[in-house]
Amino acid sequence: MHGPATAGWLLVALCAGAGGYCLLRMRGVVGEARGTAGGEALMGFGMAAMAVPAVVLSPPRWVWFVYAAVFGAAALGTAVRARGSAHHAHHLLGMLAMVYMAGAMALTPGGAHGVHTAAGAPLVTGGLLLYYTAYVLWAGARLLPLPAPADGGPPGGAAGAVAAGWGDRPELTLVCRLSMGLAMLAMLLGL
Description:
By secondary structure, the protein is an all-alpha fold. The chain contains 6 helices and no strands.
């Protein structure tokens, strides 16, 4: 990723942290939720690797083709599981955005971020920017605290709820997804 090295390293840390949390979350869930956490971990670590500042590491062109192949295969797997699920559709779009960014890097001479000379690239990038902006605003709004009920129970009306472990807390999962959405926005802006 081109741009200030500090911003690149912050993106690396954010994405690697999100990927690590998703790996830990995989331990506490089973079935479909485990696959979702695994896909999110792949996205987090893939985005972290892609965000390493170009002044530190400028990988050869073939690496971007490998990225595109890995995320293309992950997108196919996600497409099979999607079956009308909005969250799986979001994952599919994220995987395809990673393929798009990797392809842009592979097709640009020297891995420079001059991809917008292609005719359709600004339109695709603009669409992805609009989607991720809306997603980040939606996910951020979901983190706002709920008002406490009048009966004094916990917010949301789960009076008899058992406290979840830190890896099973839905708000941490949402923060992880919000973080990766913000990172995707930053990476698309740098494209």
